[in-house]
Amino acid sequence: MALGDVVLVATDLSESADVAIKLGHEYAERAGGKLVVCHVVHEVLRSAPLFPQAVQADMEAVIHAESRAAAAVEDRVKEITGRPSNGFEVRIESGGADAAILRVAEEVAATLVVTGSRGLTGIARLLLGNVAERIVRYAHCPVLVARSHARTNKVLASTDLSELSQPGIALAGQVAAMQGATLTVLHSLDILPAPAFGFTVPFGGAPVVPPPELIEQMRTGADGVLAGIIERMGMKAERRVTDGDAATAVLRTAEELDAELVVVSTHGRTGLARVALGSVAEKIVRGAHCSVLVARSH
User: Fold this and answer.
1) How confident is the model over 153-192, as pLDDT tens digits?
2) Which contiguous run of DSSP H or E holds residue 156?
3) Alpha helices in the chain (DSSP H)
4) What local confidence, expressed as pLDDT, does residue 64 receive?
5) How far is CA 91 from the centre of its chain?
6) Is-contact 295 171, C-beta < 8 A?
7) What is the pLDDT of residues 39-77, one digit of tens each?
8) Closest to 284 (Cα-Cα) out of 273, 293, 276, 275
9) Which family does it belong to (predicted)?
10) DSSP state, 233?
11) DSSP character string of 73-104
């Protein structure tokens, strides 16, 4: 099943969501897939058995709000994508935004969920909206956190060389092939000690730093493993092996390459483990200057 077979876009009709609509449209169009756009109206119904007229008024208000939202979403999607009214499906839901979007994703069997990030620039970029964050954590399929970025046709995938990270590499290869983009696969050797590493450092001890020869051997070995993974997947990709904290290395490399997309894998497997978004993935989703595609490792 292709990534763009059933694309669900979550929109709150904000500027950030407009980017999500645009990218979701592109993914669905490339795959000849279905585009579903979902907007959630806040539910305001009260429980007032002694005043049924109040409940009736609330119901009418919700119905009116949903009707207006449906028209607004349809107009926005047609304006951004150029699709006709019958070229996409609009879903208007009520209740909690993240729960509603996740429910619709399951109902339509989404192969990709696209959501905007409210972070814009600077420190605000770190303030990923709670709704987007929960969608990334709980969705059953890959999630694209969309950010506006110039088209550079450069995709960066990160891997810790484990089997759990390989779905992300495969997904990055699929996206790069669809877009005709250059793919770079990055692994970072997180072996150098951070400042004040270990119990002895604050008391005058020195952190243990591997000798340069050993670091070079590790780098060569990692590059060989990386080459083997890429070869087994039958992909064409550039390889990079760097040093340092993995999330920092990915964010730095994405900036250096001017990548328009970063692809990472979560480490959740099934059930409750799905909520365990890895700390590296979380930092990348929050801190990247471009869109981030989160692949689900099952």
Assistant:
1) 999 999 999 888 899 999 999 999 999 999 999 999 977 5
2) strand 154-158
3) 15-31, 52-81, 97-107, 130-138, 166-179, 212-232, 246-257, 279-287
4) 61
5) 21
6) yes
7) 998 765 444 555 555 555 555 555 667 889 999 999 999
8) 293
9) Belongs to the universal stress protein A family.
10) T
11) HHHHHHHHH---GGGSEEEEEES-HHHHHHHH
Indicate the pTM of the whole model: 0.84
Whole-number Å distance between alpha carbons of 136 and 129: 11
Give me the pLDDT at residue 276, please.
Answer: 45
**The token pair that represents 34 in the structure block:** 């279905």
Closest by CA to 237, choosing from 159, 169, 167, is 169
Single-letter residue type at 152: T
User: What's the 3-state SS for 244-284?
Assistant: CCHHHHHHHHHHHHCCCEEEEECCCCCHHHHHCCCHHHHHH
Range in 111-125, 175-189, 254-268 with the lowest mean pLDDT: 111-125
DSSP annotation of 33: -
Q: What is the mean pLDDT of residues 223-235?
A: 95
Q: Which strands, in side-by-side order, build the sheet including 6-10?
A: 89-94, 34-41, 6-10, 112-116, 143-146, 291-295, 261-265, 154-158, 182-189, 238-243
Measured CA to CA, the distance from residue 9 to residue 285 in angstroms comes to 17
Q: Show the tokens assigned to 44.
A: 């305001």
Mean pLDDT of 196-219: 67
Cα 121 from Cα 107, distance rounded (Å): 34
d(CA 170, CA 265): 10
Where do the domains of the chain lie, and which CATH numbers do they carry?
A: 1-148 (3.40.50.620), 149-298 (3.40.50.620)
